[in-house]
Amino acid sequence: MSVVAEKPEMTESPQPLPAPELPDARVLEDKTPEWMRCTPASVIFTTLIGLVFIMMASRPLWHTDLWDHLNYGDQILKTGVVSSTEPLMRLCRGVSMVNIPWLAQVGLAALNARFGLTSLQFVYALMIALSLALVSWRTVKMSKSTLGGILAAGIFFKVNLDQLLVIRPQLAGVVFYCVIVAWMLGRNKHNRASWIGLPILFALWANIHGSFSMGLLLMGFAGIGRFGDVLAISKSLRVALLDREFHRTILLTQLCAAAVLLNPAGIGIYPEVMNVAGNPNIESMFEWDALTLRTAQGQSAAAAALLACFAIKLSPRRMHCGEMLAFVATGLLAAWSARMLNWWAPLAGIITGTHLIAGMRQSTKWLQNPQPGKGTGLMTLVNGGILWILFALTPFGIQLVHGRVPEANRLVSVETPLATVAFLDSMETIPRGISFVPAEWAGYVMNRGPKSLEPMVNLHVHVTPEQVWNDYIRIINGPSDWDGLMNEYGINLAVIDKIRQPALLKKFRESTDWKANYEDRQAAIFVRNNPI
User: Fold this and answer.
1) Rg of the chain in Å (alpha carbons)
2) Is 79 strand, coil or helix?
3) Could you report the per-residue pLDDT of 432-475, keeping only the tens digit for each?
4) Which of 325, 352, 378 is the last residue of a domain?
């Protein structure tokens, strides 16, 4: 029997798989939710505001207010109680204290304890960036122009720069205030988000900074402005009084005012705001002085006011009654006190940017018929990438990603008495009693120096007894009876600011009752030869 060899089956050679098709950009865009899509203009703002953010996040922390707030925050974290009397300064013990920014103080202290000073730099810069973003966003919505948003943010930043240089709870108040400005100047003021979000915002705001009062004032202006607009158009008082939007604005304002009561002091928070502003000790604080053309911020404010008037005159856009009322009232407050620039600058930026673009649009062809940019998923991705780069370039980002912490002298301003506090910390014993320390340095000395050292005053001047503060002001000027005042307060150790207190420094050097234990370019430390 013959065996027939079977032919091997012929198998087909494998066919190459087709190359995967890259998804079309339009398909990706369609899959991105509408609310997540960003416009090309948003990339411009992310970049510009991001540059400011990087600059401020790398800026050394100021040597004054911050450290007092950290001390009060540490005290609250340690005791678990928001004290109703001043808890840190011996000469202020028993003085009633409504600590409005307690929540901000706790937040700053907790961040500092967990992540260090770089986290405070990051939060500081973030507050400024959010304020700029809110001013830009509202201006773009009103003017339909990217240029208008850039102008508004630039004016706000330049006019308010001196107030933005110091990290303190007030910065969070500026962010909240910009939210209210954006709400006031918008059209849809009474949607669900406003009725829910604004009372929550004010409840939080009342535990962070006393500037919630300015937010309520602005909401009041919005209600009065609506009444005035309806009255001007209808010529009927009855129509204006029965206007539904006027009623809803007043009701929302009342709801926000009630939300403010959710704080440890309850209704006592309202008179406290006025007490701080009217405290006689405040008069000696230069930052509360009236604006003058002799200062850079006074010149910036004057230039911004003139530009705003020019823009309003040039603009065909009608200025609403509430808008004008808020602009003028906050402008007068800023003229009264430079500290009030915080509340005028956002309005000045938005009003100037909006009306200037409206006026220019009449004669500038490329500004006419503005076409809103189309949001795309790609622009969202680009914005996300920019934000990550910005975060990674900050000292805080470098610390989290790479574990590198900058040296202490790079994180604080050159005015911070680092070497002086290091010497105080090295002293075996601190002379008993109250110590004389410049109020601007007291917070840092208490935070980083020996715990047994108790300064005469700090920068919470509104809770310092008036006589104590007046005596402190007299001492720093080096009066003839300086030694008698030192004896009266039982001061055995004095830290002198050589730059700001030259007359007092001369008195100490001429005295035979005191000896210099330490001196550097910034400060001198004197100890009494025979402690009292």
Assistant:
1) 30
2) helix
3) 999 999 999 999 999 999 999 999 999 999 999 999 999 999 99
4) 378
